[in-house]
Design a protein that fits this description.
By secondary structure, this protein is α/β, with parallel strands linked by helices. It is built from 14 helices and seven strands. The chain has two domains: 9-90, DNA polymerase, domain 1 (Orthogonal Bundle), CATH 1.10.150; 99-345, TIM Barrel (Alpha-Beta Barrel), CATH 3.20.20. The chain has helices at residues 9-25, 30-44, 48-57, 68-78, 84-90, 99-107, 125-134, 157-174, 197-202, 218-230, 257-267, 284-292, 312-321, 335-345; strands at 110-114, 139-142, 178-186, 205-209, 236-237, 270-274, 297-300. A seven-stranded parallel beta sheet has the order 1-2-3-4-5-6-7. The longest helix is centred in the middle third of the chain and has 18 residues, at 157-174.
Length: 346
């Protein structure tokens, strides 16, 4: 932004929102993200005269929700200066991303695994959709959790039906961008899916994931996953090993990888490449095995906040390293192509 150019309240709020987005991308603590989002909301509630008054008088920090750091960002933005806080976050990281991975990311038209504040996400559906559109996506699939995952405020059948109505209303205003209807449904102990079969069949896309009893013995876990894969409502097998690779971590679930990936190929179920930094699931050796088995893949973020939608490059780098090509990635399809593919399986 040009030196000395005064900005309206809306632009100062946009800068605060951009900082919050980048903090989410970098997996910074939620309280830090919330501080900038709250400050943006306060600024939007001010008219230009009130903002000018508080900036000139140095009284921004007297406003509820504005602290010294956010006040400095607002003052810089209002004066036409790019805040240093924003500049640092926008700086390009030194690591080099292979050109093939960049090309794969450019081929992606959407994200098949995202969450909102209807379950355990931190942002409204519309906010997630607008962030995805700003990244160049043509669509996202909204995949909030299913009822059994109570810790994540999973959606009952009634709540999911209400969500479908909300999505239909939003799609009327966001077009041509689309929010595709979906769910991340729990794979129960016996391999059944944790939602009404008729409702699952009505959704655009279903991600099926194991979230409980991750240490189940290999034979039982294999049978459990095979039953879910054979279900005609399953489109994507989510974070298949359930591992966590940061902090105290969590080991991979054990199952017969050959049998599971052969079933995915046979039932045309895509294996998810989960791009979350703490998951990066499946491990490279298993991703190579899935690709060698002829499986489709879905490169997803499993985003729970707008900034996390930028994590797709993590998955693209890993997919490229393991030999994936764009034609085998389901979210390189258009929205119509994706729903045609899932519809043929129902």
């Amino acid at each position: 932004m040009a030196e000395g150019q005064s900005l309206p309240s809306a632009e100062a709020a946009r800068v605060l929102d951009r900082i919050a987005f980048l903090l989410e991308r970098d997996a910074e603590p939620t309280y830090r993200v919330r501080a900038f989002r709250n400050a943006a909301a306060v600024v939007r509630g001010l008219d230009s005269g009130a903002l000018e008054h508080h900036v000139s008088a140095g009284t921004l920090i007297t406003l509820p929700g504005i602290g010294p750091v956010t006040a400095g960002v607002i003052a810089d933005a209002h004066a036409g200066r790019e805040p240093e806080y924003l500049s640092r976050l926008e700086a390009v990281e030194s690591k080099t991303v292979p050109e093939a991975a960049r090309a794969l990311r450019a081929a992606l038209r959407g994200d098949c695994h995202t969450h909102s504040d209807w379950s355990d996400g931190g942002s409204p559906i519309e906010e997630m959709a607008q962030a995805a559109r700003a990244l160049g996506h043509e669509y996202i699939v909204l995949t909030d959790h299913s009822p059994r995952l109570t810790i994540a405020h999973g959606l009952t059948e009634e709540r999911l039906r209400r969500q479908l109505e909300v999505v239909a209303t939003l799609n009327a205003t966001l077009a041509p961008f689309r929010i595709l209807t979906g769910i991340e449904v729990d794979i129960l102990d016996d391999g059944a899916l944790d939602q009404s079969p008729s409702l699952l069949a009505a959704l655009d896309l279903v991600v099926a994931s194991v979230h409980s009893k991750l240490r189940m013995p290999e034979p039982e876990m294999t049978r459990r996953m095979l039953a879910a894969i054979a279900n005609p409502n399953t489109d994507v097998l989510g974070h298949c090993t359930g591992r966590i690779v940061v902090g105290r971590g969590r080991p991979e679930s054990t199952f017969d990888h050959d049998a599971v990936f052969t079933a995915c190929r046979g039932y045309d179920v895509a294996v998810e490449v989960n791009s979350r930094p703490e998951r990066l699931d499946p491990p490279r050796r298993l991703l190579r095995s899935a690709l060698d088995s002829g499986c489709r893949i879905a490169i997803d973020t499993d985003a729970h906040a707008p900034g996390q939608l930028e994590w797709q490059m993590n998955g693209c780098v890993r997919a490229d390293e393991c030999g994936a090509v764009a034609q085998g990635v389901v979210n390189t399809m258009t929205a119509d192509g994706l729903t045609e593919w899932t519809g043929q399986k129902r």
